[in-house]
């Protein structure tokens, strides 16, 4: 195996906030702890959380790398003493930070073997969205065959993963997006009801199709959406919020309709979960869907790859809200 360097190049954020910039810096090579793998990064997924972090709104968990990047794919070049069997293997998985660098640390319990036939860019677009979607639908939502699921931002990375998983479970799926070409993508992934929220009020349109209501709503928007979603819920229905793109305030919220339905509003994050939680989540997902992933019965939607020196350009594209699926940096 090649000699491991002592330094690496990484993308750093200068001037956190609305005027932040990305620059390439020299950083010391991270050293794997007993439960960690050192990955020579081949590709790193881009997530909206990266944009939030550089604005100063989503700092890394205490003690973790300040380098952007929450998922990587690459080859294991060093490992803790109990995990030497990973050496030389191509893997992908979640990291709490540090993905935008030539080398990154990956907890051994969060590593998944790259399926045959997948490129590094494809698997770098997989872990964050599918594990998030699996957490929302299964761990939190306890979704069951035949249930009605509404997925906002259906053409986003998490949205495209959630549509596929919900259909694999046997759910009926409705999506909202901002354009007809995004709806076309969702339809190809199996969505049953397609709503362009710029053309119609999603709650009115969905009530026409599902007058009996919705079991689970996956919501990265929050804000006024919550007030509009509550009347859609079936008895014991759940609204699972995993981002706040429309803001943290809910104007004029009347709790009575939520009580009437015994409804639940659940807020979910993944990055700040414990390593043991992420290990259980990763293993549960891979046990349930590893074969489907390997056979491409489910798969990431990869819109575009960027050389990692083009990270700023990639971030601008993501901020435009015009993307479908995932963007990835390649090294």
From TrEMBL:
Residues 17-329 form the Enoyl reductase (ER) domain. The keyword Oxidoreductase applies. Keywords: NADP, Oxidoreductase. CDD domains: p53_inducible_oxidoreductase. Signal peptide: none annotated. This is NAD(P)H-quinone oxidoreductase. It comes from Rheinheimera aquimaris. The lineage of its organism: Bacteria, Pseudomonadati, Pseudomonadota, Gammaproteobacteria, Chromatiales.
